[in-house]
Specification:
about 375 residues; alpha/beta; 7-stranded mixed beta sheet; 3-stranded antiparallel beta sheet; 15 helices; binds pyridoxal-5'-phosphate
Amino acid sequence: MPYIPFNRPAIVGREFDYIRQAIDGMHISGDGLFTKKCNTLLEKLIGVPKVLLTTSCTHALEMAALLLDVRPGDEVIIPSFTFVSTVNAFVLFGARPVFIDIRPDTLNLDERQLEKHITPRTKAIVPVHYAGVGCEMDRILEVANKYGVSVVEDNAHGLFGEYKGKSLGTFGCLAAQSFHETKNITCGEGGALLINDAKYVERAEIIREKGTNRSRFFRGQVDKYTWVDVGSSYLPSDILAAFLYAQLEVREQIQAKRKQMWEYYNEHLQSWAEGYGVRLPVVPAYCEHPYHMFYIVLPTLEQRQAMIGYLNKCGINSVFHYLPLHLSAMGRRFGGRKGDCPVTEYVSDRLLRLPFYNNLKETDQEYIVEKICSYLVGERK
Ligand SMILES: Cc1ncc(COP(=O)(O)O)c(C=O)c1O
């Protein structure tokens, strides 16, 4: 019996060559040759004026909170169905999270509920492009502009995704990418801050460099560098950037493979899913998604748990996420109660992610599909 993990990192290009080059070039700390190459390439590919590689998406979000000057008492509107970093990055600086439910189709922040959550204390809205499928940015920006609220996109899943022909990560004043091991393009742990509003660039460089003007010093703009603001160490080693650049170089090959895998699941699970009332991902026609993950939504929690057990017995590792943030120990401290975000609560109990990684073998995917299609979820509809 095979063992098929949920995720598996892979060497896809010249990762080792470039790591060696970084070492031979005697610059393996931050902002070396490869960091700059990654920043420039991402700026070009996404169409963002300024990209700064960071140590993680979490850290890029923390930088966003610092740049927006988030303070105790500020409110930040965040979907309850997301990873903890989306919220923690803002709570760390004293913000109160205001959890909003998700749409039942795309599982993105429900923009129809946005306006009622705005108060005079609202500082930011943080849409998460779940699975890389764009949130309803037209409406989100309309509400944000009406009330003068900033938008920070959590685009951890959405590198190369588009909403109505425009790249995800270019809608908010700031956006955050992830290059964590589970992402399409990775360096193990890594991220990037995308800066669409030029007024944040100079301070972002300072915050990322421990509160110093070291970036200006390296460009010869000042003759010594010193402590000028708050900050932390948010820049990754050039060894990680070297790994990342190698992956970015073969992005077309990676994306083509993921598209093929995603379509294979989508096509071959269709009739099984219809038969048992299992829901497959919904992608609106005007969204180009980057094939980040493949999930299914089972009719009940019990059926989801039983399916995880069955797949495990077949040597297939499937996983679920996210636990509703408003019902977590921290979420409850902010007043979260059962029933606040019913769609989030429903989906969280039922969603299952299938193995999906760059070197998933075709025969393994066929095996996964075959095992799923021979599984009886419950009464056929
Ligand atoms: C929606 C979302 N935001 C943020 C993160 C945090 O990313 P990182 O691990 O790069 O900090 C993740 C992690 O997977 C995520 O799924």
